[in-house]
Amino acid sequence: MTDGLRKGLTSYGDAGFSLFLRKAFIKAMGYSDDALDRPIVGITNTYSDYNPCHGNVPEIIEAARRGVMLSGAMPFVFPTISIAESFAHPTSMYLRNLMAMDTEEMIRAQPMDAVIVIGGCDKTLPAQIMAAISADLPTAVIPVGPMVVGHHKGEVLGACTDCRRLWAKYRAGEIDDQEIEAVNGRLAPSVGTCMVMGTASTMACITEAMGLSLPMSATIPAPHAERFRLAEASGRVAAAMAKAKGPKPSALLTPSAFRNAQVVLQAIGGSTNGLIHLTAIAGRTKHRIDLDAFDGIGREVPVLVDLKPSGAHYMEHFHHAGGVPKLLAQLGDLIDLDAGTIEGRTLREVVADAEEVPGQDAIRARNHPIKPEGGVAVLHGNLAPRGAVIKHSAASPPLLQHTGRAVVFDSVEDMTLRVDDPDLDVSADDVLVLRNAGPKGAPGMPEAGYLPIPRKLLRAGVKDMVRISDARMSGTAFGTIVLHITPESAVGGPLALVRNGDQIRLDVAGRRIDLLVDDAELDKRRAAVRPAAAPEWAARGYAQLFNETILQADEGCDFDFMRKEGK
Ligand code: FES
How many Cα neighbours within 13 Å face the side chain of 358? Predict the structure, then answer.
């Protein structure tokens, strides 16, 4: 028998002795033989004093434990890495794959029949799902849930769309030091993840739509009692999966589930980061996310969820309007309702239970969408041979077709130093270009794609400009911003060839981003580019592994040896 405590024995060359020793040591914690004979549900603990988004994890663990034990199984809590957006240097994306490796190996190494992963801050759910699918043990995901909203001068506030909007006002001199300090204390009024449709909310919605978490798990606010009842119910489901040995992630993450996830990503006006993470998750299976197919889905799927930054509301409003089950109901035949869930129910059964909330306006009907097309478009062109993305649902419509003069920044540091220089030659019609900010270039593809509007233009009332880069952007940001240009400039992508004053044409309707410089001139520039030396930051350790194996954005920025088929 290789279940429960007998799974994955430590190798001493004598299986009987290995089990004897394991039991002897675990009994030091006071467990009885009855407890140790039960199926085991591992529970990841991602609580950290550095991660306020995960501030309710101890209570979630307690509730999940209760659910596991009420169902006759034994919970074992174990720590993994925790990553918080604003506490991760150089950027959280640099650490996502490390968290995925840590979580996968600890699931493999320790005896458990099912696992509950608890996460939420942007990179944590993707890392945990990448781990779960690679370990392929029955897995229940419990998102920590979104923060409740804040209030300031009669206005509703939320992290972090309003962080950026109000910081831009401060930079423009429209609000003073005292007010920005007051705002600082009101943007994040509770534990939980950012309560707009940023990456955390996007990934929680996608996870629910793929059947990996219980209905409503994406949207229940982090401090609400309902969140802990959901954790208890998730504990029960995990115990049932431990006994039944399934369903495993490989059984749930089918092509239909990945298609449903892409439909939901478009319909919620989800974060562009969500596409990278979904691509990485698919890379851990035998399935793939095709960027052009994703763009095609975007052309038929309208944005139905009215949340910032594409719309007006926040996650708690989405929740009170019926959450993801209601959204799936509104999407109707755009969703494959035969897809399964961890409970053993199909999405059809989940949708049948969706709440009807009279008068709600956060989840629109298909004939009354926020935007007629999905939130994210995929661009190609001579600047992005392997693709780029734009969240056009959160962009300025007049700028979606635009030709302008390039103003180039060679790195994040260069941009920081020069963007507010009063002598910078820049106007509102120009295109701001940032390069060397991709997966290898920065490293870790920081969320620097939301280039700040130069201060002198801000003060003249400019609210948006076309900005392009090989970086990522927070899903909470608003603007006409082209991201993930692939290949990145640090590996010889055409972004490296742009010069100040070149004309760049953005054509979102035609799905193109082009440098209007003739091929002969581009060949000349390419020939003059010297091969990059090995970067100093990658001399040893994890940094070296990262630099040598990180994939580009169109492949999900996973490590090349971590995908299903290995290197
Ligand atoms: Fe953690 Fe936004 S900072 S979810």
Answer: 0
Q: How far apart, in whole angstroms, are the C-alpha atoms of residue 483 and residue 490?
A: 15
3-state secondary structure 123-182: CHHHHHHHHHHHHCCCEEEEECCECCCEEECCEEECCCHHHHHHHHHHHCCCCCHHHHHH
CA dihedral 15, 20, 24, 27 (to 10 degrees): 90
* CA–CA gap between residue 111 and residue 419 (Å, rounded): 53
Please name each of the domains of the chain with its CATH number: 38-148+190-352 (3.40.50.2300), 150-184 (no CATH), 377-532 (3.50.30.80)
Structure token digits, residue 521: 């001139």
Query: With b meaning 16 or more CB within 10 Å and e meaning fewer, what string describes 106-136?
Result: bbeeebbbbbbbbbbbbbbbbbbbbbbbbbb
> What's the rounded Cα separation, in Å, for the pair 565 and 106?
21
Span 350-404, pLDDT tens digits:
999 999 999 999 999 999 999 999 989 999 999 999 999 999 988 999 999 999 9
Q: Residues 508-535, buried b or exposed e (16+ Cβ, 10 A)? A: beebbbbbebeeeeeeeeeeeeeeeeee
**Which ligand 1 atom is nearest residue 85's CA?**
3
- Residue 452 has a CB neighbour count (10 Å cut-off) of 19
Q: Rounded distance, CA 378 to CA 390, Å?
A: 7
Among the atoms of ligand 1, which is closest to the Cα of residue 474? 2
Pocket test for ligand 1, best of 54, 57, 85, 447 (most atoms within 8 A of CB): 85
Residue 194 CB–ligand 1 contact under 6 Å: yes
Tell me, using a 6 A CB cutoff, whether residue 53 lines ligand 1. Answer: yes
Atom of ligand 1 nearest to the CA of 51: 1
pLDDT digit string, tens, across residues 230-282: 999 999 999 999 999 999 999 999 999 999 999 999 999 999 999 999 999 99
* Two tokens, residue 37: 């004979």
Amino acid letter, residue 531: P
The pLDDT, as a whole number, for residue 300 is: 96
- 1 — pLDDT class (breaks 50, 70, 90): very low
Is 200 near ligand 1, meaning CB less than 6 Å away?
yes
pLDDT tens digit sequence for 313-363: 999 999 999 999 999 999 999 999 999 999 999 999 999 999 999 999 999
Residue nearest to atom 2 of ligand 1 (CA): 194
The answer, yes or no, to whether any atom of ligand 1 lies below 6 A from the CB of 447, is no
Residue 193 alpha carbon to ligand 1 centre in Å: 5
Cβ pair 423, 470 in contact under 8 A:
no
Atom of ligand 1 nearest to the CA of 52: 1
Residue 116 to residue 168: CA distance in whole angstroms: 40
The band of 309, judged by pLDDT with boundaries at 50, 70 and 90, is confident
- For residue 29, report the distance from its CA to the centre of ligand 1, in Å: 35
